[in-house]
């Protein structure tokens, strides 16, 4: 063999090796497909045919059984224990006195809640102010009203006449009044309730709103200032809409707490829902049924507020979530569609089998 032929053979060897290397997977796949499945690997296990064994959560099952037993026992007692007095509950549930007390409860909640959040917003802005005087005043207000129990505040406002028999307008730091009135006449039971509830609510609302404002990135405010946007517009159009996502859950908790907290007003004999229930059961001695009437109305109102909270949170989540969370109706429709599709798939699987 000449030198030229040797060079040609040496140059062809890498090419032949590359071709054989490329043909190996195809040849192996072809041989694998031609061999029977049983002959491929004696004793091989078909993992697809093995049954799926689910993990057994024994503790979860035991706790679930205990919960079902307790709930079933409670439901059974609701229908078998005559002490609940369901006929009495039905008779008084829509009575005129109960409905008037319910109206007073809603009035106190709306008025005290609105005043509380308005004053709380001002206090929150004062706490964030660079003025030492405003900051100190807001901090002192919040500290004082969070320190004194709500029941004590209401009693103090209701008995303010013992401290100041008259209230009027006149020359400062003197007793010369141009207009003067009796404190008992001016601060009625309703006024004392509104003052106590709203000022107490303002102290807590201020910290909730301040925390929501602080949760917004400081760069948002700096960018708005760099664009020359006025300060009031920065707060109302940029800061507060973003802070609302943090404020709303806690704010609704406060509103629900305020709704139930109106029951404390019964100590000053204002005819709200709980006080009316007390008056009625003191007359007919049907204590549990009348308390159940109040409990059911509180539960209904709290449920309505919880539903409103969901939709308000969903509205303000548009700026942070690409897809809004589904509503309960949308979840029910999706679940029904999944179940319906499963029913349609079962006959197809049987035919295929």
TrEMBL record:
Q: Which UniProt keywords apply?
A: Amino-acid transport, Cell membrane, Membrane, Transmembrane, Transmembrane helix, Transport
Major site of localization recorded for this protein:
membrane
Which InterPro entries does the entry mention? Answer: AA_ABC_transptr_permease_3TM, ArtM/GltK/GlnP/TcyL/YhdX-like, MetI-like, MetI-like_sf
Transmembrane segment boundaries: 58-79, 99-125, 137-164, 184-204, 255-275, 287-312
Q: Which domain of life is it from?
A: Bacteria
* Membership in a protein family: Belongs to the binding-protein-dependent transport system permease family.
Q: What's the protein's topology in the membrane? A: Multi-pass membrane protein
Q: Would you tell me the protein name for this molecule?
A: Polar amino acid transport system permease protein
> Where can this protein be found?
Cell membrane
Specify the ABC transmembrane type-1 domain's residue ranges: 102-309
